[in-house]
Amino acid sequence: MRSRATAPAWAVQAYGKWRKRRRAWLATGICVAVAALVCAPLLMIPGGSLMDSAEMRQILSPILGEEKGFAAWHLIPVYPTIGHFYRLLIASPAFYQLFWNTVGMTAAILLGQLIVGLPSAWAFAAFRFRGRDFLFGIYVVLMLLPFQVMLLPQYIVLQKLHLYNHPAAVILPAVFSTFPVFIMYRGFTQIDAAILEAARLDGAGELQIFSYIGLPLGKMGVQAAMVLSFLEYWNLVEQPMAFLEEQAAWPLSLYLPQITVSQAGFAFAVAVMALIPALFVFALGQDALEEGIAYIGVKM
Amino acid sequence: MFLLPGFSGVMIFYLLPFFEVVRRSFLKSGNGAFVGMDNYRAVFGNGAFALAVRNTFLYMAAGVPLLMGISLFLSLLLRNLLQRRKLVSALLLPMAVPAAVMVLTLQILIDRQGVINGVLTHVSGKITALPAFTAIDYLNTGWALAVVVCSFLWKNTGYMVILWLAGLAALPKEVEEAAQVDGANRWQSWHYIIRPGLSGSFFTIGMLSVLQIFKSYREVWMVAGSYPQEHIYFLQHLLQNWYLKLEFDRMAALTVIMSLVLLAVCLLLQKRLE
Questions:
Q1: Whose CA is closest to A277, among A210, A216, A204, A227?
Q2: What ipTM did this prediction achieve?
Q3: Do A231 and B98 contact (CB within 8 A), yes or no?
Q4: Is A38 within 8 Å of B248 when comparing Cβ atoms?
Q5: pLDDT lower than 50: segments of chain B
Q6: Angstrom distances, CA of residue B183 to CA of A14, B22, B168, B180
Q7: CB-closest option in A123, A142, A144 to B3
Q8: How far is CA B124 from CA A68, A72, B110, in A?
Q9: pTM of the predicted model, to two decimals?
Q10: Region of poorest pLDDT, from A48-57, A93-102, B129-138
């Protein structure tokens, strides 16, 4: 007679599998909960941008100082309207100015970083020259310093060059930022040195090696640098605040908080317009972004 | 030479003006007279400086361990999951959200009469076992620091998770598998295998978190605008304020002090990065 205490083998196996799976489910559950918490505030934005002003006024009235009690929020507006987008995109041309300021600034910075940064990164990756390590050390320190430490130095130089209060005051220092150089450098160091050696032996010129081997093989680093830079400069706050006095030259990121809570619907519509390009780049460049961040921490 | 154009720009916009600031930190700003260490003394004797240093330390003491702990915990959970990629990108999403976009959302959520207090009051009203909840004025009390720490965590957790995952991926898998075959439980494999293997990552990520604290101007600005309440007044704000008040001599001295401290952090880090 079979003992009742020992379960059949298939049951033991199933139990083990079930435990493993339960563990994975638990881990997934925790991570999903955290991820949801992280993304939750963003869910307020689309609804807010489509919410009628009267409805907004009613649910936010405690914050506006008109009532006791607490503000509420409707994720899906009860009286949806595209009025804010109409006002933003068609009725008030001022928005275009700010939007194109941001686009222009970001584009100029990214382009400049490519032109300046690519050769620098290549120089650090492909050549051994005197003082290389020391110079590279300087680049790394500069990339890690917060902007406020460079605030006064940059102000002095911008004054001297008569660039203060000109968009170039934001663009030029950013173009020579050392962060993209570092990321692109990391991308280039992934290339096997033997390939470069072989190309040199076969008589390829340095420019040929750079454009036929370096660029195609190191393009992950370049993409990563561009994605990281875009997300950074689309979101500029400190630099234009310090160096641009005229509001007309400001980027969207600095203008948006000027809209008060009483105009929340309109502000949410602006937020949507500021968010769309950033999310677009984020979605497209996700692999590059993750790769780029990993470059920062991993030892060579 | 490939490096020349880039390096000349770095010289013009970063290095030369920085040395100029070092020089100016020993001069009086109006007439350029040499005053020795006077500017430095003025900085150390300044009340706002003491406040900013204290706050920055508190912020660091809360922010860095929390950030490292949470991101490490998440990456340990994440590393063997199938849906890892999607989850990591959800955690990274705050990097793509402009600070300006969050300003309004946060105002609605954390105002004294905002949504969060509303929800908490509602919940504590429903469950009688809980003590009655009185609305917290997050932005005008010591809670402001907690809010800033939360937004720091919100912004940086994804970034650090990627760094931890990269560190974890570099560990040899065989060792852990062998230990598991030999009957090591999860705690043992963490304690004897993963943790020692990650010691390099601990250091790198710790240093990067510290630097991230000094870089987090936008997080505070997002919560409290340009004029933060005294609990969240950090060294970054002091520099920004002296800049607006055109107090360049003291600002030069503070710039030098801060860059020396940060340079020390960077040099420690750099030994690892190279």
A1: A227
A2: 0.85
A3: no
A4: no
A5: none
A6: 19, 60, 21, 5
A7: A123
A8: 18, 17, 17
A9: 0.86
A10: B129-138
